[in-house]
Amino acid sequence: MIPKALIDRYQRHLSYLRISITDRCNLRCIYCMPREMIPKLEHVDVLRYEEILRVAGVGAALGITKLRVTGGEPLVRRDVCDLLAQLNRLPGIREVSLTTNGVLLAERLDDILAAGVRRINISLDSLKPDRFAAITRVDCFHKVWDGIMMALDRDMAPVKINVVALRGINDDELTDLAALSLRYPVHVRFIEQMPIGEAAMRPVRPLLTPEIKTLLAPMGRLEPVPASTRDGPAERYRIPGAPGEIGFISAISHHFCDRCNRLRLTASGGLRPCLLSDHEEDLRTPLRHGASDEDLAEVFLSAVRHKPARHHLAEPLHEDVASAMSGIGG
Ligand code: SAM
Ligand code: SF4
After folding, report:
1. Of all atoms in ligand 2, which is nearest to the CA of residue 72?
2. Which atom of ligand 1 is nearest to 121's Cα?
3. Fewer CB within 10 Å of terminal CB in the chain, N or C?
4. How far, CA to CA in Å, does 291 sit from each of 58, 126, 273, 300, 320?
């Protein structure tokens, strides 16, 4: 019998599915993609929208309530807002959110809102246009900034701003990025760079949360924001009186695996129980060979059985993650 909830061996209740809808992107962030990105996936290998909807529907029947659409860059895929609207209409789905690099946000915002999306995460690693161009290899800081401002104007607050902390690259402006929370109702979240995909090819000593906090010390006392049931992995703080927040996502230094409620659907139809382990269950083959919903539910259950207790990135002899972040979605 198919259960109504996805509960793994460690009693974690999996209710959140992140969906990468493409491995293509209009940026080439240095920690994510090579400069000359040749998309790994042929069009035929990428799940079609009706396949994504079917997987999400089976997930919802199994107790998934929250979906996030990501990529690659989700806004480069044609008719993405139709997909967002259809995902939002699936029975049992309470929230559909989006992670984007923001480049196309201003021009797509009306359609995103019309699709019922109210929560958005935007990546922004620098406030300096030249540096932004050096990190993303595309000169388009102002487009992203306009997208953020427009999202705030259209009542999408709190807009979450994801900053990957990069040693020697943006570590001198983390206070400026954090200070956005003093001016705007944004949640600025500092993310530790993970050795995955492109970042695994060029090993660096990552800037970890304790060091990031030290760099932010000149901002004064950070007041902890009490955790709520809606909280993701971010440890949340507020500068007293600020309209926004500052968060830390410490996948390496302080893993949150014991609270992880996520599964991931990759652009090519792999169901992945853990971002930081290359184990995937293939959904594309059964989807394209007449599988029933019960068959697809079995693939979900198998992924859940394979969800590891935790990742081992902080250990010296860990295995790097070979898959590209762009196909998994972060
Ligand atoms: N293109 C969209 C974007 O950039 O927001 C969505 C996909 S991107 C893969 C999702 C998130 O993963 C982004 O916030 C990005 O900064 C983050 N990311 C990519 N590679 C990373 C890495 N090696 N370590 C930590 N975060 C990474
Ligand atoms: Fe594109 Fe996002 Fe990867 Fe940057 S992090 S290259 S915006 S997918």
Report:
1. 8
2. 5
3. N
4. 12, 46, 21, 13, 33
**What residues flank ligand 1, with Cβ below 6 Å?**
25, 31-32, 70-71, 73, 99-101, 123, 162, 164, 191, 193-194, 196, 199, 325-326, 329-330
Burial of 230 (0-12, 13-18, 19+ CB in 10 A): exposed
For 18-45, write each residue's pLDDT tens digit. 999 999 999 999 999 888 866 678 999 9
DSSP reduced 3-state for 100: strand
How far is the centre of ligand 2, averaged over its atoms, from the C-alpha of 224 (Å)?
Answer: 30
Considering every ligand atom, which ligand is closest to the CA of 199?
1
Q: How far is the CA of 100 from the centre of ligand 1 (A)?
A: 9
What three-state secondary structure class fits 327?
A: helix
Domain boundaries, the chain: 16-328
DSSP-based helix, strand, coil % in the chain, nearest 5: 35, 20, 50
> What are 254-293's pLDDT values in tens digits?
777 888 899 999 999 999 998 877 789 999 999 999 999 9
pLDDT digits (tens, 9 = 90+) for 133-156: 999 999 999 999 999 999 999 999
Distance 70 CA to ligand 2 centre (A): 10
> Which of 3.20.20.70, 1.10.10.10, 1.10.357.20, 1.20.120.10 is the CATH number of 16-328?
3.20.20.70
With a cut of 50, list the residues of the chain below it in pLDDT: none
Query: Of 325, 326, 328, which is best to mutate to test ligand 1, by the most ligand atoms within 8 angstroms of its C-beta?
Result: 325
